[in-house]
């Protein structure tokens, strides 16, 4: 009897240890998957199917023998076996491990008062299949993993929070924005009203121009609009307009700003005050811009062959040209360097046409608009591909004053190189006399309001 009970106790202990072994096996597989995650630096999702441990009931059958068994008072006190597994905490990844409930149902033990024959029935231990399928370990592709890592590094997960914050700021500052925009709109309306009055003041000139020629009327209208814009926004002034002949040809050589808006104002004043149209030489890329062809034709803009320039001057027209061109517009700066290089074509045009050369410079033209062409990338693009794509910024309402120097008369004994040098020195002299170097936007804005020019 004692031995039978001891045997049953050891059998139950064996089944308990088998279940513990299965539990530790599943834990080992989880740690293996976690190890693969740490080595691959990829999100790994390990799924374990539930472990079902099934124990078949132990059937112990006792068959009576013709042997009398005297019960012996044997006391059997099984020692308590306590198994307290240490708490295992797994934080990374949503890995869920739910062990199946282990059910142990001992078979009923029957004792016969007769002799006892102990027949150990088969104790069958069928461990449930712990299924570890390869599909349960999913490796994220490398590009997706890199994108997620970059997303975490850049903090894009908080974009929604930033948008919510911006929405809050917009809700808070919208009233203030409206309060400031309304006065600004009123100022724009006043500006347009002044421009309208400026045009209306010259309605008689417009009426006469439209009666003579359609394009003369269009040129006069645009000239008045540009002159009004220059007078209102920049307080534009021209000093030395009397040096422009009322009749006859002349070659006007000027310094090229980032945007030659001063030259547009000058052309408008020539049309209004002298009643003449000044032909101009422009870069080839202007003729490739869609929609510019009509504007260039109406204002007699040519792309610059020497023969065509000579023809315009011999026909008695004024001709404006900037030897620096696009290079000077993009790469010059607030120190106002002349980037003419060895260009002498304009001087040869003046010699062939036998016309005087008038130097011209506009004060603060580099403070009105500035270029980022001094950066190496934009210079390389222009030198390599002839792409004038350097960004231009500005539009500041600085003071513009255009100064015309003394005409350089035609001299048949002067070569093109000598004439080009004389014209360059004349333009440089105008810059040194009327422009503070280096240019300053703030100082130019102050001059727009407070200072007045003193004639030399």
TrEMBL record:
Domain Phospholipid/glycerol acyltransferase per the UniProt entry, residue ranges: 237-360
Protein name, per record: DGAT1/2-independent enzyme synthesizing storage lipids isoform X3
Pfam family, one: Acyltransferase
GO cellular component, one term: membrane
GO molecular function terms listed in the Swiss-Prot or TrEMBL record: acyltransferase activity
Organism of derivation: Austrofundulus limnaeus (Annual killifish)
Keywords for the protein's UniProt record, in alphabetical order: Membrane, Transmembrane, Transmembrane helix
Stored InterPro entries: Plipid/glycerol_acylTrfase (IPR002123)
TM helices/strands, residue ranges: 168-197
